[in-house]
# Entry
Amino acid sequence: MLSQASEEGPTTNLRIDTVPVATALRDGAILQNIFNHIELLPDIICLSGTNRALQAAGIKTMRHRWESILRPFIGGHMFEFSHIMQLCKIVITGSCTMAMLVGEYVTPNNLNLVTPRGNREALYSFLLDDLRYHRVQRNILPHHAFKGTIRSFAKFRREDRVITVSEATVDGPFDVIVSSQTTADMLCMTAGGLVTFYPHLTLNLLITMANHTAPHRHARLNVGSAKTDRFAFHRTSSFIHGPCGVLCPALWRSVSDQGRQSLTLEWDQNFSIKPLIDSSRTVWRLALRCRNSECLSNRRRDSRQKALPPRPVPCTPTTIKQQELHIANHAPRYDRAFTGILYATGATKPSLVTIPVREFALPVKQLSDLEILHWLDALGPERYMSTSSRFRKTYNPKYGEYHAHSYTFFREHPMAYTPPNLCIRTAADVTPGDEDVTGNVLVIKHVHGRKHDLVHCGEDDVSYVNTILKMTVTQSDFWL
# Structure
């Protein structure tokens, strides 16, 4: 309180009685009021890390937000719902997840669930028997953007509440998530964590389009965040007004990427989303090529930019040398590369070739950081999305001088319709009439048990890999 002035004149020492900040930050009511005025989930988590009192208040706020979003759809079945999500590896996407991320900027309309392949029946039973929803209609189709990533789609209704269930075609939800029409919709959450891809765009209320899902280049998108006025809508990355960097739509991304490429937020370790992220092998890109005139990856800006995979892929000694020149002259220049072994379909002996590390992928964290598309077509007809572990096999020597290292064999996509591999036929002494290995085969060497710890291949490795081929060429399961 300010001290009162005396009759002799005004006082020269004003005193203010204050509550110490440390005391205020231990007051639960004050802390809760602070958190109630914070909308963005990253800001809540950041403030929660300040001290124990703020951490307790922050966790309480995040759990309350989670429950307030879900309660209109599942009522008092919070524990059961969290349990079945964890058990069946189910994630939530759409407006509910956006509301968790940005707060009251979003009012959820539907609860959109994505379940891995084979887990839908347990979820259906929970919705029908426990939550008393009814299935709206059978044979309903999902949005065309998710064609190829959703095995089955169902809609359930109870009064004015709607729950949709998308069963993925694979054992994981992320193929569905990254098929969304816009970057802002590429997010999902469990009962204890959330991941958003392209967080720089989403949290700054910007949005770009996954070009391959557009029904027509002049058509307005009609699903998810694109149908609202909340975001600035852009069809290309030209709005950046400079090089795209990690935001380039033609850049391949992995679900497990970190930094500016994704943001993972967690409020309950019991229902962490990180195991789902770590086990995912989904890689994707938004566009075949960048249309930003200032982007270093724009092929129209620099003729040294080449489309990958090349058509046709290098298959003879001459075309292998040409591809080496393309890699050496690539723009932007590759920062690092490793030496691998290529068994080309039209060659009589294997070649040591350069395998560069993808742009913005240093340090190497996984094998998908390598730009193997210079040497083989691992995509086939799937030009925008792939699975990094598909069409590859790792051989682990169990004894001898090579047991400290492993070799991973990359194959071409079956629908690339490649010819028999003459090089492997020669190196492995394949008997005429036996089934051939088709397409180029690329071999990478790395430390045993640490696939990100890559090692250059040499001539000695060529001899040893030839021995591996002789042992495995007739084993069909090795090449699946």
Notes: The two ends are 79 Å apart (CA to CA).
